[in-house]
Amino acid sequence: MVAGEGARRKAEARSPDGAVKVTITEIAREAGVSVPTVSRVVNGRSDVSPATRARVEDLLHRHGYRRRPAAPGTKAALLDLVFNDLDSPWAVEIIRGVEEVAHEAGVGTVVSAIHDRAGAARQWMTNLRARASDGVILVTSALEPGLHDELRHLGVPLAVIDPAGRSPVAEAPTVGATNWAGGMAATEHLLQLGHRRIGFIEGPPRLLCSRARLDGYRAALDAARVAADGDLVVPGDFYPESGFVGAGRLLDLPEPPTAIFAASDQMALGAIEALRRRGLRVPQDMSVVGFDDLPEVRWSSPPLTTVRQPLSDMGKLAARMLLDLARDVEPAAPRVELATELVVRASTAPPRRA
Amino acid sequence: MVAGEGARRKAEARSPDGAVKVTITEIAREAGVSVPTVSRVVNGRSDVSPATRARVEDLLHRHGYRRRPAAPGTKAALLDLVFNDLDSPWAVEIIRGVEEVAHEAGVGTVVSAIHDRAGAARQWMTNLRARASDGVILVTSALEPGLHDELRHLGVPLAVIDPAGRSPVAEAPTVGATNWAGGMAATEHLLQLGHRRIGFIEGPPRLLCSRARLDGYRAALDAARVAADGDLVVPGDFYPESGFVGAGRLLDLPEPPTAIFAASDQMALGAIEALRRRGLRVPQDMSVVGFDDLPEVRWSSPPLTTVRQPLSDMGKLAARMLLDLARDVEPAAPRVELATELVVRASTAPPRRA
Q1: Helix orientation angle between A311-326 and A89-104, rounded to the nearest 10 degrees
Q2: HTH lacI-type domain: from which residue to which, for each copy (chains A, B) (predicted)?
Q3: What residues of chain B lie within 8 A of the CB of A244, using their CB?
């Protein structure tokens, strides 16, 4: 059976371990409001006064209330997939994975971008209440703390893809990729080809995944007893232009590298263009490795050697966790990193003989 | 006020010109069912027998019924954005545009892929009913005829982006791009550079946009009094591999072209890779032009000369039309083509002197 409005409104108060703790009737009595009013708050309706909503949400939270565990066989109707920005080809990979799982379960995938702006995030939260979403998947999202609290009070199940830092909601399950191992694999590949001076273009340092890739790069150099040279690490922000600029900085060093490992595919494409403009060929004059394995880099010129992040699988897994949570099934493993994999194509080769 | 369930269920029967024609009570009487049953059908609920649903939908359709014109100031809660596949970077461009407009209006954007398979489309239709979506945007979608009829019967407003052929629902507004003018502009650019043998890699012939781009190419050749050579037109399917193969076929001609116009950016990237593998440089040995202006081609090597399709603006306009329709406002112009624009970058140059 597909959940109609009836099923979407059904709700019981449960403690975090899944046992029914209080009924909505008890919450209503304690708050001094009607049962339909509690139900309206539970379902994120807007026709409740702010004071009443705050009182009821506080009680729901204090009683460890968990929203609408659907009866067995019923299906949630909507999940929210939230990006900071919809400006990267990797967003579509994650959407594809989430949509595939949600679609099969009869659940719609609502895609939103909050643009790192408080106003847009606030609007999204209002919309989320209005549509009584059954769960939220945040992608590398740094929601402001006030919104974390609201999400927790709403009691909507939450999962996080590619956590930017500590999970914004402590109890939310997270799905990431083995960024450290991927950074190490890419660097080992270049070392095995004979490179010793390997440049690294970083991601934004506030993201955990950036730090993990950098540490993987350093660990591989260490293991090969190659001294790390701080000049060979230049900043980037995952976007192509920063790869273009970063590669330029590396080429301008008194002793430039013979290979560049960029912490994202998009920066690797920017780096390749910087090399082309200086008349340098990839891989004959310089090897380049990326990170992500976006579909388009199979067709870059040359096709890019990169570290595959299973973005679509990450989306699938997060969606499955969320659908489980919506049925009050705790995920078996709430902190998961899916394996990355080195994909060797045509942008890497042994260093040119000096 | 944000629409709660109450507003989402409110519905009146209207004729296509917006005048109230029959009430739900009259439909119920004529169908021999209760008013709540008609309401359940109108709202796509699943708890109605198939026979009753069919009878009621038939009556609603015969009376020119239009679903839920929201009261002024209320907002629709959800719109559905439907792709055949979520496998192309241009999908994210359209999603971005639709989401931006929907988000501002307090409306969630539900993204789905129906994979050109009847089963998935059927499941989507079931989900659509269950979530009582306020409108549907189809992207280049060839829904099977049975589903067109169901959509029409459901009375959900519909808009089509980049219509694949005749509009699947005759009265639905469409948003496209000036494909013919774009094909002409790309070809004129190559002619002005001095090219006379210009290869063309086609899109799928069943899509109107493919045909329009090809006709634009031919029109530009005609206008310049350059004889069209049928060997210079090779098939493709918009994906990179077909550009790779198509470029190979053009290069194998007894008299190969000096420039290639690919009807999509992804095919242009495939063509550039085919040239690289044969040791040919772009643009020194061969010029290449694409179509779309995906964000990534700013950073292809070399950056691609292409025809910009305003994909994100197309998404925005379709979303606006749909939100208008949901408020029973007919779009001022129901068939719109947004202007394409030639963007000259580094992949085109005069032909090499023989």
Answers
A1: 40
A2: 22-76
A3: 299
- The residue of chain A nearest to residue B244, with distances taken between CA atoms, is A299
pLDDT category of residue A143 using cuts at 50, 70 and 90: low
Domain at A48, CATH number: 1.10.260.40
Q: Is B123 on the interface with A (CB under 8 A)?
A: yes
Measured between its terminal Cα atoms, the distance across chain A in Å is: 70
Q: Say whether pLDDT at A259 is over 80.
A: yes
The average confidence (pLDDT) of chain A is 83
Tokens of B20: 């109230």
Phi/psi for B262 (5° steps) reads -100, 135
A127 and A236 co-located in one domain: no
- Token pair in block for residue B248: 């190979």
| A319 and A248 housed in the same domain | no
B326-336 b/e (C-beta count within 10 Å ≥ 16 → b) = bbbeebeeeeb
pLDDT in tens, A153-203: 777 888 999 866 555 556 788 899 999 999 999 999 999 999 999 999 999
CATH number of the domain that residue B232 is part of: 3.40.50.2300
Rounded CA separation A100/A252 (Å): 46
Residue B90 shares a structural domain with residue B160: yes
Does residue A220 sit in the same domain as residue A278?
Answer: yes
A184 near A217, Cβ under 8 Å?
yes
Tokens of B230: 């049928």
Q: B199 phi and psi, to 5 degrees?
A: -80, 150
| ipTM of this complex | 0.74
Tokens of A145: 């703390």
Indicate the residue of A2, A240, A300 with minimum beta-carbon distance to B46.
Answer: A2
Q: Which domain holds residue A224?
A: 179-310
